[in-house]
Amino acid sequence: MIRTEEMILNVGPQHPSTHGVFRLVVKIDGEIIVEATPVIGYLHRGTEKIAENLQYTQIIPYTDRMDYLSSMTNNYVLCHAVETMMGIEVPERADFLRVIAMELNRIASHLVAWGTYILDLGATSPFIYAFRDREMIINMLNELTGARLTFNYMRVGGVKWDAPEGWIEKVRDFVPYMRGQLAGFHDLVSGNEIFLDRVKGVGKYTKEEAIQYSLSGPNLRSTGVKWDLRKDEPYSIYDRFDFDVPTSEDGDCLARYHLRLAEIAESLKILEQAVEQFPAEGAILAKVPKIIKAPKGEAFVRIESPRGEIGCYIASDGKKEPYRLKFRRPSFYNLQILPKLLKGENIANMIAILGAVDIVLGEVDG
Amino acid sequence: MIEELLQSSPSWANFGIFFLLGAVLLLIVLGFVTYGILAERKVMGYMQLRHGPNQVGGKWGLLQTVADVLKLLLKEDIIPKAADKPLFIIAPVIAFAPSFMVLATMPFTDQFQFADIGVGLLYYIAVSGLTTFGMLLGGWASNNKYALLGGMRASAQMISYEIPLVMSVLGVILLSGSLNLNEIVAAQKNGWFILLQPIGFIVFFIASIAELNRTPFDLPESENELVAGYHVEYSGFRWAFFMLAEYVYLFAMSALITVIFLGGWLAPIGFLSFIPGAVWFSLKFSVVVFVYIWLRSTFPRFRVDKLMEFGWKVLLPIALGNIFLTALIKSLFF
Question: Is A8 in a helix, a strand, or coil?
Fold first, then answer.
């Protein structure tokens, strides 16, 4: 008589494939997962509480450290919220710089997602190819902001630094280069039988489930919901650009993989147009008071980060610090569906599903 | 010379000679492992836009592996408290010893072979199967869940892929009419078996990657899933023994492929036979090793269930079909 026993396996917080300090307690029967419980909070720094004692400009560096792969969108959502409350009009040149920076950052973030996802599936080389191209973006942003990851670039009313000489041309040259690389990525991985075997039909969920679990970003669009805040609730100057919102009907890991690559292509389209229309002259910072005080009241704004909808809620009592600050952090919400998806899968699929969600722990833990 | 020694009555002198010869082979193999690892790191490095080792031992990193081994020797030897101590200690030895044993029958050239036994091929396959015990024991004795899963995967994979491996090589045996590796090489005088047995070669090559636990079949130690698989609790020189076993198998398997499919030490074209056999052997051997490294840096990893499916439902039927086809051709045309 064979006796089998379920065992509890602790995946993380030091597991190589949990993309940071994420911990997953899984109950497994052989290699089949019976139950999965995510444990988060290893990177919790209390950003929202700290922010209650900081002036608005001082909060910006803290937002860099939430989703550290896409700091620009975090910067933007905070500044956007304060600007909405104060009714500040951002100069055109600043808006263009913001959009270019955000789209570059989106490409960089998706490159990391792509490279690490393939690395999770066991292939080592594509990761390095992705990071080479990401490095080019990081270098460009470094030139613009003086930092490689935690940019601290945007300010309430505009941006901190103007584009250095020749920088816009560099972005222009980068677009065709990246298009070529993208085709190479597809050649290298997208058609690989082993890869398709591992991601096709894995981690599937429906449109209704995705909406019930409040998913956003590629995780939502992979089920066929055409929802991108850049298109549906245009902020900044996104309504000036012509781009598509790629969606897929499959709802599996392969769909999410393809969507991220398609989004890189769309971002390149936006970059191309933004560089074309970039105003030659103009201020980069609106006329704002020296000490920024949001008027009494509250505001909630949301934008599209690479991982989904990032929102910022500010309740102000008219002081120079917010009374309460809250971020809607997409990775955290996207992670909620994980226990449901993992039930009945094996360990290898667990890695594939977790990787396709594309979490950043700084954002999950806040 | 070896032939005479084998025929002569046992004596201490004979024992000493055999021991020395074994030591010589061990040194050759260790030399290969040292520079095989370096080659793998360099080749993978260049494939991945990196330089690979370039600090220790000049710009080619020639002493990098030596430094690594020294470091492993100096490391603290950790045995987990909850581990099964005797098994934990013996597992790396069980994993390594067969990898060296299989080299005994390998005909590197027509002169350089240690034991020319009649069933050389069978001996290789039988002995190499023993390594699985070492991996399974290591995984079990570590008393670690990841290691256990890795050990289980290792044994399941080895058993599943040993069968297509053996079946695919049967075609070669049918054509050469012998299990003796020397005679298999001699039978390739007019054409390598890679040309006469293309299907058998492909099946054998795929199964051999699985036997070597290399990407895309590196499931027993898949880093991204099981952290390090069966050797997760091992450190220092015990760990080095597992790695050594892996690379000696790479050596042995590449040598075996050279012998049974690429014509061993024979020159590809008759008039080139003035070049010594050892050169031809090492050339072919290096090509095989390079292909293994190349595959490693290209492919993602299989999934466990797909791996089993692939082994049993794809490779095995193809291998069986190949045997049938070979037998048919042989009885009709030869």
Answer: strand
pLDDT of residue A138: 92
Question: How many H helices and E strands in chain A?
Answer: 15, 8
Q: CB under 8 Å to B64, separation ≥6 — which residues?
A: B38, B41, B53, B55, B56, B57
- The reported pLDDT for the residue numbered B4 is 67
Question: Which residue(s) pair with A313 in the sheet?
Answer: A300, A326
Which of A26, A117, A121 is the best residue to mutate to test the B interface, defined by the most B CB atoms within 10 Å of its own CB? A121
Q: What is the pLDDT of residues A255-264, one digit of tens each?
A: 999 999 999 9
Per-residue pLDDT reduced to its tens digit, A80-89? 999 888 888 8
Q: Which residue in A has a C-alpha nearest to residue B43's C-alpha?
A: A125
Query: In whole angstroms, how large is the CA radius of gyration of chain B?
Result: 20
Residue B40: its chain A contacts at CB < 8 A? none
Which helix (H) or strand (E) segment is B282 a member of?
helix B277-298
Tokens standing for residue A64 = 């860099």
User: Which of the four pLDDT bands, split at 50, 70 and 90, describes residue A363?
Assistant: confident
Do residues B200 and B169 lie in contact, with contact meaning Cβ atoms separated by under 8 Å?
yes
* pLDDT reported for residue A110: 92
A to B CB pairs, distance under 8 Å: 80
DSSP states of B94-140: HHHHHHHHGGGG--SSSS--S---TTHHHHHHHHHTTHHHHHHHHHH
- Residue at B234: amino acid letter: Y
- Which pTM does this prediction carry? 0.85
For residue range B257-269, list pLDDT tens digits in order: 888 888 777 777 7
Task: Tell if the CB–CB gap between B216 and A194 is shorter than 8 Å.
Answer: yes
What is the model's pLDDT at position A108?
92
Residue of A nearest to B222 (CA): A122
Substitution target in B153, B301, B307, B314 with the highest count of A β-carbons within 10 Å is B301
Q: Does A347 contact B225 at a Cβ distance shorter than 8 Å? A: yes
**B297 CA: distance to closest CA in chain A (Å):** 6
The strand pair at A308-316 and A154-155 is best described as: unpaired
Mean pLDDT of B271-289: 80
Q: Which residues of B touch A194 (CB under 8 A)?
A: 216, 299-302
Please give the average per-residue pLDDT across A231-245, as a whole number: 87
Q: Three-class SS of residue B80?
A: coil
